[in-house]
Amino acid sequence: MTTNNLVLSGTITRSRRFKSPAGIAHSVIMLEHKSQRYEADMLRNVYVQIQVILSGPRFESVAEDLKAGVELQVQGFMTLQQGRNGQNRLVIHAENVELKT
């Protein structure tokens, strides 16, 4: 199987920008999503915080706008990222982003 596509909307709670040693621009944001969904005919509260990574020149035009409190929708793929502490976590690598505010 090769399908790996996710669309998620939410509010930015943190953001930072940096350039890699190769000179590639990166924006890393923490996206907070809250909603309600039906599951087994019952309404369920849904909450998730997930890191989103936006890399390359196509995101440089929106990088200044990626600040706490901004609402957006991101489309991309998920992957595991290993932190400095050795813990694995899921992150989204953005392929498209749409600012909502």
Automatic annotation (TrEMBL):
InterPro entries: NA-bd_OB-fold (IPR012340), Primosome_PriB/ssb (IPR000424), Prisomal_replication_PriB (IPR023646)
GO biological process: DNA replication, synthesis of primer
Matches recorded under PROSITE patterns: SSB (PS50935)
An annotated Gene Ontology molecular function: single-stranded DNA binding
GO cellular component: a single term: primosome complex
Highest taxon listed in the record's lineage: Bacteria
Keywords per UniProt: DNA replication, DNA-binding, Primosome
Pfam families, per the entry: SSB_1
Binding partners and assembly: Homodimer. Interacts with PriA and DnaT. Component of the replication restart primosome. Primosome assembly occurs via a 'hand-off' mechanism. PriA binds to replication forks, subsequently PriB then DnaT bind; DnaT then displaces ssDNA to generate the helicase loading substrate.
Function: Involved in the restart of stalled replication forks, which reloads the replicative helicase on sites other than the origin of replication; the PriA-PriB pathway is the major replication restart pathway. During primosome assembly it facilitates complex formation between PriA and DnaT on DNA; stabilizes PriA on DNA. Stimulates the DNA unwinding activity of PriA helicase.
Family classification: Belongs to the PriB family.
The protein, known as: Replication restart protein PriB
Naturally occurring in which organism (per UniProt): Shewanella septentrionalis
